[in-house]
Specification:
Layout: E1 3-7, H1 11-22, E2 28-32, H2 48-51, H3 64-69, E3 72-75, E4 80-84, E5 89-92, E6 97-99, E7 102-105, E8 109-111, E9 127-128, H4 133-141, E10 148-152, H5 156-167, E11 171-175, H6 188-200, E12 204-206, E13 211-216, E14 223-228, E15 233-235, E16 238-241, E17 245-247, H7 250-254, E18 263-264, E19 276-278, E20 283-287, E21 292-294, H8 299-313, E22 325-330, E23 333-339, E24 346-352, E25 357-364, E26 367-374, H9 377-389, H10 395-399, H11 405-409
Helix pairs in contact: 1-8
Bound molecules: flavin-adenine dinucleotide (FAD).
Flavin-adenine dinucleotide is lined by residues 7-13, 32-35, 42-43, 45-46, 79-80, 106-109, 130-131, 157, 248, 251, 280-281, 297-299, 302, 326-328.
Length: 410
């Protein structure tokens, strides 16, 4: 019997299952998920769900009926422990095994753990990571007005949580080791804008700040304070660690698949092994647009790679060529990012930081490679097209607000 077995019930796994059926796959489709419940959206976990404006009922990507209608089976609370590529089966943690004709690895990524003196392998009750709905629910239990929250890491997740916490009346301190927030992903102009916004909201932002040690209470179950290398001791009630994610590639590695910053796939999500695919956060694909390999952690990427796998499996290979994009919500600011700014040598600004509405265009050798758009929803489609097309015209046109960006794509 043909069976598409999908390891991981996240955004990529869910999309792959539905796409397979839409593409006419007639065999069994089975998702193995080590989490409870239906595949759900993670982005709101650090945004509206945490802020309490979006309930748990709104998190599933699609309703149960959509899987039933498409005859997609989901096995919850089950974990795949090893892969047998030759024998075309997987072993589950409960000792059982399942056969497949097509295997899709959609194992995602996990939160990087904090490594600091005083913590070791301990999991204090008031120290949080944010990857799953369960993590967010646990954090919300301690989400009480007036509590002192220390956030380790000034990346997207740290800053989104900071904004949500401030709204809920917590006292927030963000510790960032780099000289600026969002240092890995944006230009200094964009970082400084976000720093100003957070500080104006009342967040204490400590840049260039590294942790020396975590100070635990006598029981060893609660963090009392963070001690930084500059000698400061920051007392706290709860901690959120947002220091990046690690791809879940161990299964693939153990099975002998090529792994290099993610499971290596081609632009149709195929690994080097016949019938085996990898999609979403756990995979690393070639980007024709950027001429390099990318491992992306974003919903649009998970969806596009899932669709590419489904089309390849159903004999209609359609390579993934869509422009990578991403978003982040903080306060009233909607950040939308088109493309990857890696290697940029010029930044062109359009709009007004003071009016909280601007674009940072990133160019490399005169060619547009990416853009960060802050509250520019109406222009975002045109900007994506410009980036996709690799606009290489006069960069002053990008800065000139009297120029309609749609006209530049023509
Ligand atoms: P995941 O969603 O990680 O799903 C993988 C699933 O596989 C998990 O359920 C995992 O437990 C399971 N699994 C792993 N190993 C096994 C195994 N051996 N057996 C069974 N199951 C297994 N992206 C955006 O584009 N915009 C945003 O604003 C944004 N915000 C985010 C906010 C937060 C708090 C987080 C955590 C992520 C955010 N992301 C955002 C990233 C986005 O959620 C991920 O890129 C996306 O979820 C990747 O989907 P995936 O299916 O590849 O992996």
């Amino acid at each position: 019997q043909t069976c598409a077995l999908i390891v991981g019930g996240g955004h990529a796994g869910s999309e792959a299952a539905v796409s397979l059926r839409q593409n006419g796959f007639a065999g069994r489709i089975l998702i193995i998920s080590d989490e409870p419940g239906l595949p759900y959206q993670r982005p709101p976990l650090s945004k509206a769900f945490l802020a309490g404006t979006l309930g748990a009922e709104a998190l599933p990507i699609r309703p149960a009926a959509a899987y039933e209608k498409a005859n997609i089976e989901i096995r919850n609370g089950a974990s795949v422990s090893s892969l047998d590529l030759e024998g075309r089966s997987v072993q589950l943690a409960d000792g059982s095994s399942l056969g497949w004709s097509h295997l899709i690895l959609a194992t995602g990524s996990r939160a990087r753990r904090l490594q600091v003196v005083g913590l070791g392998e301990r999991q204090p009750d008031n120290l949080h990571y944010l990857r799953s709905q369960a993590d967010a629910e646990r954090l919300r239990e301690q989400w009480v007005e007036g509590q002192r929250l220390v956030i380790v890491g000034g990346g997207y997740i740290g800053l989104e949580v900071a904004a949500a916490a401030k709204k809920a009346g917590l006292q927030v301190t963000v510790l960032e080791a780099q000289p600026r927030v969002l240092a890995r992903v944006t230009a200094p102009e964009v970082s400084s804008f976000y720093e100003q916004v957070h500080r104006a909201a009342g967040i204490e932002l400590r840049l260039n700040t590294q942790l020396e040690q975590v100070s635990l209470d006598a029981s060893g179950q609660m963090v009392e304070a963070m001690v930084t290398t500059d000698g400061a001791r920051i007392p706290l009630d709860l901690v959120l660690v947002g220091v990046g994610a690690i791809a879940n590639t161990e299964l693939a590695e153990q099975a002998g698949l090529e792994v290099d910053n993610g499971i290596v796939v081609d632009n149709c999500s195929r690994t080097g092994a016949a019938g085996v695919y990898a999609i979403g956060d756990c995979s690393n694909h070639p980007s024709a647009l950027y001429g390099c390999r990318l491992r992306l952690e974003s919903i649009p990427n998970a969806i596009e790679q899932a669709r590419a796998a489904a089309s390849a499996i159903t004999g209609k290979p359609t390579p993934y060529v869509a422009l990578p994009w991403f978003w982040s919500d903080q306060y009233d600011l909607k950040l939308q990012i088109a493309g990857i700014n890696q290697g940029y040598d010029q930044v062109v600004l359009r709009g007004s930081k003071a009016l909280r509405s601007f674009v940072a265009f990133y160019l490399r050798a005169g060619r547009l490679i990416a853009a960060d758009c802050i509250n520019r929803q109406p222009e975002f489609m045109a900007i994506k097209k410009l980036v996709q097309a690799g606009f290489a015209g006069d960069s002053e046109l990008l800065a000139d607000e009297s120029v309609n960006l749609k006209d530049l794509t023509a």
